[in-house]
């Protein structure tokens, strides 16, 4: 019962830890370079080394950071996020995706109250391996340089290829509370919401209203392109269907910024993804 007095803050799970990562201004808007078609990436010369790798055979084993470990169960290969002990498949086939996605990095979300850290969820970033062929401009950068390079993460977001965030809850949360926390993180990143944005947020909200999210529940946020995202929720393994489609460039970019912008809600996830990218691009 000693934690009761913190209950109004406990599930504000998508805000950065303020004493380490300052909040964005409510008027902050996401500023990402706009690439409308695959041809817009022509200025990014493709590395011959990456061209020689068939996307489905890219090896992601070496991408795990020091905060994760790798192992196999049967024919499936996994990476364990060590802070939460949650396991992430190294390759996933998700509804709506044209090819299997590969795990780039893992991390966790922790809320700190006084001096007590409460882990809320683990997360893993998956990408279409072909995205890697658009990033040769940053070849040779260190993990720390990549982590601070907003242009690189913007290019990943803007690429018209799939990327997906898998969230694994490590404690029970009711759906309304989960959505309220997510909305509190997304909305300040949209400077002026349009009717399209409001409709997208309403659709997003409806997925979680009245829906209990038990420990172990999986939530997949899959960006098909910069303005279209699929949402899948499952309490029983990898989902086979899509719960909703979100079509709003402002909403989808704001959500990506929540996790991979300048003040990510899970610094460990962005760090792990940067380590993975540094390994690929070295």
Automatic annotation (TrEMBL):
Pfam short name (any one): Chalcone
Every Chalcone isomerase domain range: 87-278
Gene Ontology terms, MF aspect: fatty acid binding; intramolecular lyase activity
A single BP term in Gene Ontology: fatty acid metabolic process
GO CC annotations, alphabetized: chloroplast stroma
Protein family membership: Belongs to the chalcone isomerase family.
Name of the molecule in the record: Chalcone-flavonone isomerase family protein
Organism: Salix dunnii
Species classification: Eukaryota, Viridiplantae, Streptophyta, Embryophyta, Tracheophyta
